């Protein structure tokens, strides 16, 4: 979430009409429910409806602990907007989430010497907006160079 928020700040002036502060806020709360329910992936065998229900209950529970009621309600609102994917900000945060995932995978490959090709395969067509298409291309080029150097040594 942190890398996503920092990258969101870098979008200032790059995407017309983008509210960067709201984007950063959504980056920080979009996965907050996972603190309670964990990261439910497609491999978990949980339906989309069940995942949504579990996470919805979790984000509401977390929000109920926030001392200033309207702040917690705002977090729930941001989470719902992200889940609906019907706003520019939500789609941008989805792109940031996918980019963060492949960037983290590349970090782990270099740090731990493991092959995380499945993350790169699963996101091949995930990026459709600028600057994410360019960021993804640059990351994949860096990874390809790293893999070439690694195979030589």
TrEMBL record:
<dbReference type="Pfam" id="PF13023">
    <property type="entry name" value="HD_3"/>
</dbReference>
<dbReference type="InterPro" id="IPR006674">
    <property type="entry name" value="HD_domain"/>
</dbReference>
<dbReference type="GO" id="GO:0002953">
    <property type="term" value="F:5'-deoxynucleotidase activity"/>
</dbReference>
<protein>
    <submittedName>
        <fullName>HD_domain domain-containing protein</fullName>
    </submittedName>
</protein>
<feature type="domain" description="HD">
    <location>
        <begin position="1"/>
        <end position="127"/>
    </location>
</feature>
<keyword id="KW-0479">Metal-binding</keyword>
<dbReference type="GO" id="GO:0005737">
    <property type="term" value="C:cytoplasm"/>
</dbReference>
<dbReference type="GO" id="GO:0046872">
    <property type="term" value="F:metal ion binding"/>
</dbReference>
<keyword id="KW-0378">Hydrolase</keyword>
<dbReference type="InterPro" id="IPR039356">
    <property type="entry name" value="YfbR/HDDC2"/>
</dbReference>
